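Section 5: illustrative case.
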């Protein structure tokens, strides 16, 4: 019997790849599963296509059945611990037990209160369980859903475009365009993968942004995030954010915690904060951000309109420490993905 867990890395890599076929947005995770024999050959594949549809494990079992192959004695390799609960669909741990698989290999534990501990159910039924295979890769790929579910609030991405001296607008308030076309296309592509885009009232009044996800030819992507306005200022008038391209809500509050709780209740797991500096700074000040995306353009603007307002950093030891997770050229701009440095803030 194979006990060398590194042998499961290749099928797990395939399962991680399959997971990406599912939507990155929404309440459910991206999950992939493969069924392998004792020679680690993949006999069937499955992935989760979004809330209300078969889980990856069940999809893989169905694909196997369609080929007329018996699951008895096989190994299921799944990117997430099989669920233990009856939600919109039945528990996968039980489905695997009933199928008669001999072994279940997964990458990361399910953080859900009701859905977790599928591994215990499997072990109790005499199935061998191997966890942690390619855990680092699965954590990285699934970071949005995993973080949101561990924290019980939406994953918060802050995004801005700035000149190389960190300015997001000129003295007169104009900001079109700081980043180049490649950066803007990248932003639109990423917008289609989030549940909500949030801006402050001031951004609506000053910039009148549409905040939709559009293809380079101007066409709307199929999935549009919810547009969220945060702040007590009343917004009346014909602003583009109210057009019928996507849904829009205005939380007339300054409470970020309150807004995030309401968004969570609506099923939002990933919120992307697009500005302006006042709102983005508040998220940073409160420690409520998980990821920063910055498009830095090769220009100097100078002046007062910095990307961040006062963060309460009085001395260098109070600076908010980040780490760069990704840095690359995007057209003429630099794309940076940074996250708070763990244990430092
Ligand atoms: C998925 N897809 O492939 C796996 C999931 O409401 P339900 O029944 O769809 O259950 C969703 C929960 O099931 C989800 O939050 C996660 O904890 C667990 N596993 N979910 O959507 C899958 N394996
Ligand atoms: Zn499941």
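Designed sequence:
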């Amino acid at each position: 019997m194979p006990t060398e867990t590194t042998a499961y890395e290749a099928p797990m890599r395939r399962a991680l790849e399959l997971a990406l076929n599912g939507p990155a947005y929404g309440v459910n995770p991206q999950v992939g599963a493969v069924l392998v024999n004792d020679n680690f050959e993949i006999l069937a594949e499955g992935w989760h296509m979004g809330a209300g549809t078969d889980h990856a494990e069940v999809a893989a079992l169905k694909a196997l059945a369609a080929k007329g192959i018996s699951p008895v004695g096989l190994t299921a390799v799944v990117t997430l611990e099989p669920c233990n609960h009856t939600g919109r669909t039945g528990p996968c741990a039980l489905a695997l037990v009933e199928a008669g698989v001999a072994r279940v290999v997964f990458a990361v534990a399910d953080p859900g209160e009701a859905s977790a501990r599928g591994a215990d159910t499997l072990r109790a039924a005499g199935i061998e369980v191997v966890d942690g295979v390619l855990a680092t890769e699965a954590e990285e790929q699934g970071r949005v859903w995993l973080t949101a579910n561990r924290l019980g609030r939406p994953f918060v991405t802050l995004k801005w475009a700035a000149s190389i001296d960190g300015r997001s607008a000129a003295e007169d308030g104009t900001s079109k365009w700081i980043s180049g076309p490649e950066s803007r296309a990248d932003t639109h592509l990423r917008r289609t993968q989030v549940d909500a885009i949030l801006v402050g009232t001031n951004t609506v009044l000053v910039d009148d942004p549409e905040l939709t996800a559009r293809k380079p030819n101007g066409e709307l992507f199929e999935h549009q995030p919810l547009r969220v306005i945060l702040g007590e200022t009343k917004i009346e008038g014909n602003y583009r954010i109210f057009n019928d391209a996507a849904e829009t809500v205005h939380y007339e509050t300054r409470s970020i915690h309150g807004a995030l709780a309401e968004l969570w209740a609506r099923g939002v797991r990933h919120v992307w904060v697009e500005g302006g500096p006042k709102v983005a700074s508040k998220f940073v000040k409160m420690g409520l951000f998980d990821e920063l995306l910055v498009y830095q353009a090769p220009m100097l603007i100078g002046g007062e309109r910095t990307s961040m307002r006062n963060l309460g950093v009085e001395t260098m030891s109070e600076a908010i420490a980040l780490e760069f997770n990704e840095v690359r050229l995007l057209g003429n701009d630099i794309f940076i993905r940074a996250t708070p440095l763990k244990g430092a803030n």
